[in-house]
Amino acid sequence: MSPQHRPPERTQPAPGAGSGAPAVRRAEVDANRWPDVARLPSAGPARTAVAGYLVGRALDRLGLTASPAGVRAGTCGPLLTLHDPDAFHRRIGRHGLIGFGESYMAGEWDSDDLAGVLTVLAGHVDELVPAPLRGLRGLWVAARPAADRNTRAGARENIQRHYDLSNDLFSTFLDPTLSYSSAVFSSLPAGFESLASAQHRKIDRLLDLARVGDGTRLLEIGTGWGELALRAAARGARVTTLTLSAEQAALARERIAAAGLTDRVEVQLRDYRDAEGRHDAVISVEMIEAVGAEYWTSYFAALRRALAPGGRIALQAITMGHREMLHTAATHTWISKYVFPGGLIPSRRAITEHSAAAGLRTVADHGYGEHYAETLRLWRERFTARRDRVAALGFDTVFQRMWELYLAYSEAGFRSRYLDVRHVLLTEGTRR
User: What was the pLDDT predicted at 221?
Assistant: First the structure.
């Protein structure tokens, strides 16, 4: 998906919209940019009716209220407001959860508590479809596109489609460290501590886990915008950091130069499979999710090759249950279509098995899922508060709704414990 290059036309809020998301009408959606949002899919009346019945039954059972636009009296808990019920059910009937997300992008539904609605749904995801119908999921879910495979060329394209959208876009909602991964807070819920302070705590824990200090040869796989490399170099480490994002690399180099640390940090535009040299420590923060299941073996083999004898590998990785991972791996999801093409969140079991196959041993494994939920809440609040800046960058209303849904969807995954985020320490198989 390409960034939007001209400011969107402004629209007035739809009646009954409660999430604060900018309103959009399907007829106004740019069909060249968002073809599957601009048009309704073909779904017969029977299929639409079945979807309406199943959705209504699931929402009732979960205590969620779905109402026509403008009807709010007498409700408690999160409210899902349907501006176009027929379109909403038609999309879900044809494309399942992808249709659910596209319906939000099209402005066909809103919520007064988007993250709350999604948290309830994520916490009961296995119950949304009646058990007798779960074996028929192939009727409404599609396989992942072959074009999204993370070959060397595919990985570059997939990374660029997300991370090269615009450095200015990410700066609208990230803290000044430009850290695009879970923070670790001193306490929850986050009080007066700044997000930047919590991000530094996370980075320091990873550096400590890998024993990074003066003279350490550190390889970082996944540069981001350079904050971990900067903090490691300030400890006296010599850092080689790899990324496939040209925009991230350019800004990371600027920040490193501004800090006077160019003699200690080298940013390489390079695939992890082509990493060179041996290093005392390897750190990779939320990079494995972009690798793809068929390349996890290559990923851990590359980490192992890069490790000097006695070295340590510290990972920050989002995880999900193993059964859920297997289902997701076989499914084209809304996230894989619009946000992270080619991505897949691993299970803890997958990390353990694939790393062991590369000759690595898991020495430590700690979870911080509730901290990610809080991080995402803060990002979402910053993003929604700065929509005017996002629009001025040329990102249209559909993109803004998509991004808000992505942040709320992710927050819900961690709040419901469907997702977790782990700090994992790996060493050579014969050492601790």
Answer: 98
Q: For residue 10, what pLDDT band results from cuts at 50, 70 and 90?
A: very low
C-alpha span between 267 and 199 (Å, rounded): 21
Full domain range(s) for residue 187:
148-428
Structure tokens at 219: 């390889």
Strand-pairing partners, residue 362, are 426
Question: pTM of the entire structure?
Answer: 0.91
pLDDT tier at 27, thresholds 50, 70, 90: confident
Distance CA 77, CA 69 (A): 17
Residue 203 to residues 136, 189, 206, 209, 419: CA-CA distances in angstroms? 44, 20, 5, 10, 21
The pLDDT-based confidence of 240 (bands split at 50, 70, 90) is very high
Statement to judge: residues 39 and 165 lie in one domain: no
Task: Indicate whether 98 and 224 sit together in one domain.
Answer: no
Report the distance separating Cα 83 and Cα 410, nearest Å: 24
Beta bridge partners of residue 427, listed in sequence order: 312, 361
Given 141, 158, 186, the domain boundary residue is 141
Q: Assess if residue 354 is contained within a domain.
A: yes
Please identify, among 90, 122, 141, the residue that sits at the C-terminal boundary of a domain: 141
Instruction: Let me know whether 242 and 111 are in one domain.
Output: no
Output the pLDDT for position 181: 98
In whole angstroms, give the CA distance from residue 402 to residue 3. 12
Per-residue pLDDT tens for 391-425? 999 999 999 999 999 999 999 999 999 999 999 99
The answer to whether the beta carbons of residues 419 and 413 sit under 8 Å apart is yes
CA 411/CA 115 separation, integer angstroms: 7
Statement to judge: residues 345 and 410 lie in one domain? yes
Tell me the per-residue pLDDT of 297-323, one tens digit each, with 9 for 90 and over. Answer: 999 999 999 999 999 999 999 999 999
> Do 41 and 112 fall within a single domain?
yes
Q: For residue 214, give the CATH number of its domain.
A: 3.40.50.150
If asked whether residues 311 and 175 sit together in one domain, one would say yes
